[in-house]
Write a structure and sequence with these properties.
- By secondary structure, the protein is α/β, with parallel strands linked by helices.
- The chain has 10 helices and 10 strands.
- It has one domain: Alpha-Beta Barrel (TIM Barrel), CATH 3.20.20.
- It has an 8-stranded parallel sheet.
- Helix 1 links the parallel strand 3 and strand 4.
- The chain is globular.
- The structure holds pterin-6-yl-methyl-monophosphate.
- The site of pterin-6-yl-methyl-monophosphate has 17 residues, from strand 3 and strand 7.
- Pterin-6-yl-methyl-monophosphate binds next to strand 3 and strand 7.
Length: 279
C-alpha cells in the first residue's frame, strides 16, 4: 500500500512509520510564539529524530478534551518558525497538525508535506482546496463535535461501523476535492468523542478499519483511556500502556503510530512488526 507525500512515497505494506509528536505550545510563563518556545520545540524535534522518528507531527493548538481554540495568527507564530528551522536540515518529512487552512498552507510552503487535520477537512471550508493544490498528503481523522465538546456523552449505535462509514465518506469528499486516494491516510481518532468502551472496541475490531484500504494511523499516546485501564495512572505513567496499544494496533494492521515517547515505541514497533508480519 503506497502513501504519497510531496517529495516521496512510502510502501506501507512492508513498513510501519513512527510519527513523533512536537507540541509547540507556550511555556507557562510566555504567550507562545516566543523564541524560547520555538527553539525548544525544534530541539525536541531533532531529539525525536535521533530516537527513531520517521515523521514529525508539529502542532500549535491543543486538541485535548475541553481545550480552547487558538487564533490563526497565534498558531502561525508558533508553528511556521519551527518548520522553517527544521525543513531542509532533516531527512524525515514534517506533518502539520492543524484544523486551519491558512496554517496548513503556510506550513506546507515552509516545508511540511502532510496535513494532519483532526476534523477530516470539515473544520475549515478552504482546507480541502489547500491540500489539493499543494499535493500534500492528508490524515483524515474521526471526531464527534469539537475538542471543546467531544467528550460530552458521546453515543454511537456501533462505534466501529460508524467510524468506518465516516472515514469512507470523508475519503470520498477528499477525492472529490482533488486529493488523490494515494495521498490519504485514515485515523479513527482514539479519545476524540469516545468513552473507554468505545476506544476499547475500536482496538478490538481495528482490522475492520485497516480493511478500508488506506494506511491506518493510530494515536493512543498517553491518552486518558490508558489512564483508566491502568487504574488512574497520570499521563507520565502511561508509557507501557501506550506501547501495548501501539503493538495491538500493528497486529491489527495499523501502519502509522503517533506517539510522544519515540525511543521506546520505535523499539517496540520494530519487534511487533517482525512478529506480526515475518521477515
Ligand atoms: N491526537 C491528538 C492530536 N492530534 N492527530 C491524529 N491524527 N490522531 C490523534 O489521535 C491525535 C492527533 C491529541 O493528542 P496530544 O494532545 O497528546 O498531541
Amino acid at each position: 500500500m503506497r502513501w504519497q507525500l510531496i517529495d516521496r512515497s512510502y510502501d506501507l505494506s512492508r513498513r510501519v512509520l513512527v510519527m513523533g509528536i512536537v507540541n509547540v505550545t507556550p511555556d507557562s510563563f510566555s504567550d507562545g510564539g516566543k523564541f524560547f518556545d520555538i527553539e525548544r520545540a525544534a530541539d525536541h524535534a531533532l531529539e525525536l529524530i535521533a530516537q527513531g522518528a520517521d515523521i514529525l507531527d508539529i502542532g500549535g493548538e491543543s486538541t485535548r478534551p475541553g481545550s480552547d481554540a487558538v487564533s490563526v495568527e497565534e498558531e502561525l507564530r508558533r508553528v511556521v518558525p519551527v518548520i522553517e528551522r527544521l525543513a531542509g536540515k532533516i531527512q524525515v518529512p514534517i506533518s502539520i497538525d492543524t484544523m486551519k487552512a491558512e496554517v496548513a498552507r503556510q506550513a506546507v510552503a515552509a516545508g511540511a508535506q502532510i496535513i494532519n487535520d483532526v476534523t477530516a477537512l470539515r473544520g475549515d471550508p478552504k482546507m480541502a482546496g489547500v491540500a489539493g493544490e499543494t499535493k500534500a498528503a492528508v490524515v483524515l481523522m474521526h471526531m464527534i463535535g469539537t475538542p471543546k465538546t467531544m467528550q460530552q456523552e458521546p453515543r454511537y449505535g456501533d462505534v466501529v461501523t460508524e467510524v468506518g462509514e465516516f472515514l469512507r465518506e470523508r475519503m470520498q469528499a477528499a477525492e472529490a476535492a482533488g486529493i488523490e486516494r494515494e495521498r490519504i491516510a485514515l485515523d479513527p481518532g482514539i479519545g476524540f468523542g469516545k468513552t473507554l468502551e468505545h476506544n476499547v472496541e475500536l482496538f478490538r475490531r481495528m482490522g475492520e478499519l485497516a480493511a478500508l484500504g488506506r494506511p491506518l494511523l493510530i494515536g493512543p499516546s498517553r491518552k486518558a483511556f490508558l489512564g483508566k485501564l491502568l487504574g488512574g495512572a497520570p499521563p507520565e505513567e502511561r508509557l507501557e500502556g501506550t506501547i501495548a496499544a501501539v503493538v495491538a494496533s500493528i497486529c491489527a494492521g495499523a501502519r502509522i503510530v503517533r506517539v510522544h515517547d519515540v525511543g521506546p515505541v520505535a523499539k517496540a514497533v520494530k519487534v511487533a512488526q517482525e512478529l506480526a508480519e515475518g521477515r
